[in-house]
Amino acid sequence: MKCKEIADLPPEILTLIVSNLSLNDMLNLRVVSPWLNEFMMPVIKPDTCALTFLDLKKLKNHLAIIAEMTDRATALHFIDMLAISSSSTKARTKEKMKQIQMTIPIDRISHVDFSFFKSARIAHFRVAKILPFTLTVAHLKLLRQLLLGCTIDQISLFFDAATIVQIFEIPSLLIAVNAKHAEFIVQNMDQRDLLEYFRTHEFLARLEATDVKELSIGLTTLSILGPVPGGPIESETDFEFIKQVINCGITKITMDLEGCERDGFERFRLLPFIRDLAVSSRHVE
Amino acid sequence: RIYPLMRVTLTTSDGASVTVSRQLTKHSGFIEKAITDMAVDDNAVPLSAVAVDVDDATLKLVIEWLTEHRDDALPYPEKTDEERRADDIPAWDQAFVQKWDTKEDQQQTLYAVITAADKLDIKGLLDMTCKTLANKINGKTVEEMREILQLECDFTEEELAEIRKENAWCEN
């Protein structure tokens, strides 16, 4: 049979043809005809939503998300969310990055099996420090649901006196999203005692069951506000904690315990400690 | 018709027979496989005819392209998405395709050659013709694309608005 129109071409040949086009041309082809729209959508839309970061904030009755991506076509993964989002959504391109901001009414998603993406790879998922999504029991359940289908390289979570007990439930979340780097931040700097929860046997045992290789714990925002130079280690308890964490399979630890620069920091104890770690042949930074 | 170094007879979908040199058919994965499957001595004359699912008129164009490209290196170089570019069509190929623009059914001719290149597994010709079609669409408005591809707009106004809204998420 002679090929009379473009619709007669085999799909793999059509794919070859459109692979020579720019994204804007491919998007225009969607508008040409219904069958081209149907054909082009899976060609344009990446199978996995790849994000450089996803920030989550909790407004009064809404969730606010900010997502950044390098491939503009990735924005098509947010189309399903448009239907449930409120009007304050926007997308903008800054240099080579595409950024999307969206607010979603919580009551529209809390009672349905809603997740952000069917499949996503997120380099860094961050609960924002300002207006954080506090990890209450209900919020943690919702967070699991929202992140279903996501793989997250680094996850940053905030805790306060009311939510620190949820730390024991976090390792199962880390397993679900296959996290490699977990960052736990205590909300208020004067709540240093909350750090004790990270030292409990129960938490460390659960952490060992995850794939996490890098752990950051601090009283400030650590990498969100920029990394804190050096590894401030304040007391014998901290040295002991580092050993325990390393025994859980963690190979990189960052601790910001607000004590590095103060007078009397016992640097002379740090070097022997690091040497001691080195003989265990682990890669420890 | 006889081409230099007669070696392989091709029978077309509309019953014609064309005999061509193995120097040309070596660029066709389909014909080379068919010859291999015959398990005959390369020097045997004549070979059994190879049936190709391409009409006579299109096969003539394919053979014209193969004749020009008979000395091209094999295998055809595979390119990654990053290496691929549509503006590197050789001058002879551009002129070869432009000749069809004077034909009433020029778009159908392009589709026919693309389909033939696919069926005969001629990677260089397939690559060139796909790029040619892409270049016709490249940078055009939706209306111009419809005209080039000879397609009707079957969308409702609501459907069009929805797609444009979705596209706006990806555009600069």
UniProtKB/TrEMBL annotation, chain A:
This is F-box domain-containing protein. Residues 3-56 form the F-box domain. InterPro entries: F-box-like_dom_sf (IPR036047), F-box_dom (IPR001810). PROSITE patterns: FBOX.
TrEMBL record, chain B:
Residues 123-170 form the SKP1 component dimerisation domain. Pfam families: Skp1, Skp1_POZ. The keyword Kinase does not apply. Keywords: Ubl conjugation pathway. Transmembrane segments: none annotated. It comes from the Eukaryota. SUPFAM superfamilies: POZ domain, Skp1 dimerisation domain-like. Residues 8-71 form the SKP1 component POZ domain. GO terms for biological process: ubiquitin-dependent protein catabolic process. Belongs to the SKP1 family. PANTHER family: SKP1. This is Skp1-related protein. It comes from Pristionchus entomophagus.
